[in-house]
Amino acid sequence: xxxxxANADTLSLxxxxxxxxAYPATLSSDTNGAxxxxxxxxxxxxxxxxxxxxxxxxxxxxxxxxxxxxQDLMLKTDAGDIRHIAVGKTEGAAIIVLYLHGQGxxxxxxxxxxxxxxxxxxxxxxxxxxxxLYLSPDFPDFGDKGAAQIAALxxxxxxxxxxxxIFVACGSMGGALCWKLAGRKDTGGRISGLLxxxxxxxxxxxxxxAFKRRVPVFFAQGSHDVVFPVANQEAFFRSILAKSxxxxxxxxxxxxxxxxxxxxxxxxxxxxxxxxSKAP
Length: 280
Known about the structure:
Blueprint lengths: L1 H9 L7 H4 L4 E5 L4 E5 L2 H7 L1 E3 L3 E2 L12 E8 L2 E9 L6 E6 L18 H11 L3 E5 L6 H17 L4 E7 L3 H9 L1 H4 L4 E5 L11 H4 L4 E6 L7 H14 L5 E7 L5 H5 L2 H11 L2
Parallel strand pairs: 2-12, 7-8, 7-9, 9-10, 10-11, 11-12
Antiparallel strand pairs: 1-2, 3-4, 5-6, 6-8
């Protein structure tokens, strides 16, 4: 027990282009820094950062050497065949991170080196360099069938890497799966953190195994998100703290950002290192 707690303290993702991916200026913050408003500007954060806006980031933001440890795989499970892309160590991983795409996405979104300002390439490099495993799967829907397949995927890789902390990041509608996983007895008792990026909320979280275990939750939202209004997500974040003032949760609001902004702008390293320090 003590050694596993020590391991959680010692694992910290190594830097990767931290200066390029640092948050722009903080406009305001409250709740002892748990809630932060970041200055986001499309002209600077998309048009200057990208060679082709929203399609290809400038080369200094990426390192594609990580593709050497990237595989497109199929896992056969009782819940169905699960196509997924794995980056890093499929056995004995120090950390496991999954990205669940939104409506109209696929497993390829989470490993695209050049879209979203190179932020997925950064995540791949961060995880691979720290001896971890990053997974970007396909799934059939955002309901029980999709959740069952992701649970089976997590189960398989958790058995291959029994000491790894497991974090699930969900973009947009993928958040429906994040909440379903939190509520399941198997995954809710196993995952170590949830990241909701331009996503939705679920009051059932308060009765979930994950909430009872105080699994860290990170929210990132654009203030101009017309799909999932920022006010709703902020209210949900504050309702978590209303239940427990010390609950490990953080909220980053990108001022003027839109629906896809959090996937482009979220600081994977800072967020995951915070989660590793708080994970049950």
